[in-house]
Specification:
Elements (H helix, E strand, L loop, with lengths): L1 H6 L1 H21 L7 H23 L5 H27 L1 H6 L3 H25 L5 H49 L2 H12 L3
Helix pairs in contact: 2-3, 2-4, 3-6, 4-7, 6-7, 7-8
Length: about 200
């Protein structure tokens, strides 16, 4: 462990990101609808950790061949972690959208993509030229996984705006339905949100 931290600060960076990705995975895994603030908070911490890693790598020394090769396994493990989180986010898309949080998840994923892309470029710039292609391929797995999430939530980004604008109508409809529960009210309630849409 001492050798790793001395020779390859980038390995430490990947380790920090991996730990924060686990925290996000846990937040997403335990999300079952409603307030998504725990997921948002974990996502923001992840982006902050990645950006801090970008600074560490940029300000650090060039990576030797051994340093670069030491990154291979941690980056592959991180890629699998990220893929798992994204798959989980996609599987819970309906719950996030129902909570009017589809747009939030979409924006968070875009921020993660930008940060991950910056880190990939920072690491690629520090590895020996002969290994830059390998470094690019390794990091491409992470950005590809995040892109998959962005694509899945793309429609939710615009639908959140619509959902928010018609939310008061929907809430009123629900309240009216609950209080009166007559056929006439239900018809009126249902038609109300349809008109603005």
């Amino acid at each position: 462990p001492t050798l790793v931290s001395r020779e390859a600060p980038a390995v430490g960076v990947i380790s920090d990101i991996s730990a924060q990705t686990s925290a996000l995975a846990s937040a997403v895994s335990s999300y079952n609808g409603g307030d998504p603030s725990a997921v948002k908070s974990a996502s923001e911490k992840l982006v902050s950790t990645i950006n801090s890693g970008v600074d560490t790598v940029k300000s650090g020394p060039a990576l030797s061949t051994a340093d670069a090769l030491a990154l291979t396994s941690p980056v592959q493990d991180l890629t699998k972690q990220v893929e798992g989180v994204i798959d989980d986010l996609i599987s819970k898309k309906d719950k996030f959208v129902a909570a009017n949080a589809g747009g939030t998840v979409y924006e968070d994923l875009k921020a993660q993509y930008t940060a991950a892309d910056s880190l990939a470029k920072a690491i690629s710039a520090k590895v020996p030229e002969s290994l830059s292609d390998i470094a690019a391929q390794l990091s491409a797995g992470i950005t590809a996984a995040i892109q998959k999430g962005i694509d899945a939530y793309k429609d939710a980004a615009s639908s959140t705006g619509t959902a928010s604008s018609s939310a008061p109508a929907t809430e009123t409809a629900t309240a009216t339905e609950t209080s009166t529960a007559t056929g006439t009210v239900t018809e009126t309630a249902t038609s109300t949100p349809v008109i603005p849409t």
